[in-house]
Amino acid sequence: MVKKIKIKGIGDIDFYFNKNVSRINISISKSGEVLVNIPFISTIEEAVSFTKSKIKWIQKNKTKIEKLEIKIIDPDISKILLIPFEKSMIRKLNKISVKYNFIYNKIRFKTMYSRWGSCSSLNNISLNNLLLYVEEDLQDYVLKHELVHTKIKNHSKLFWSELENICPNYKYAKEKLNNSFTIKPKHKIELN
To answer: Cα(143)–Cα(97) distance, rounded to whole angstroms?
Structure first.
């Protein structure tokens, strides 16, 4: 559950009780939203006090984020747009897999909020529907990244070396994907 509280000098902040944290912590999303995670052993008052003690840090980091050019992606995509996108991505994946001798089992598309793609132990590749919104060279990077996982299941030095062989600009693409896009948040439930 989320509670929105306005704090002078920062604005609205989302306070969220989270069973997975052991101490109060603050994060700032790529879209500049401030989130305070609170363990169940703490109170909202303690979290507000802690947050007020970190105002300068929050302001500094929000300013850094505001200087970045970040595209906010809306996860609600029309099926009309997804059909040609998926066909195009399948064609690209097949072309790359043949060119570099990668074998994958199945491909599926879904909207994911924390990754652009994945490859299972059975070489089933999942691609994020939100790739629809990114440039073609970044889509190609994700396809190549997942295809390399059909041979190397981790992110070892060998994996990155293999990826660099087929995608020399992978560092740029990885950086751009991680730092230039954020997903429009879903509506949050407010506490009274």
So the answer is: 9
Here the tokens at position 111 are: 């909207």
- Amino acid identity for residue 156 in this structure: S
For residue 36, give the H/E element and its range.
strand 34-38
134 in Cβ contact with 177 (< 8 Å):
yes
For the chain, percent helix, then strand, then coil, each to nearest 5? 45, 20, 35
C-alpha–C-alpha distance, residues 167 and 102, integer Å:
14
How is residue 78 written in tokens? 């029309």
Residues 8, 14, 18, 22, Cα dihedral to 10°: -30
* Cα 166 from Cα 183, distance rounded (Å): 28
- Homologous superfamily of the 79-183 domain (CATH): Metalloproteases ("zincins"), catalytic domain (3.30.2010.10)
- pLDDT tens-digit readout, 154-166: 999 999 999 999 9
The per-residue pLDDT for range 85-138, each reduced to its tens digit, is: 999 999 999 999 999 999 999 999 998 877 899 999 999 999 999 999 889 999
DSSP letter (8 states) at residue 190: B
Q: Where are the domains of the chain?
A: 2-68, 79-183
Task: Give the angle 107-113-116 at the CA atoms, nearest 5°.
Answer: 45
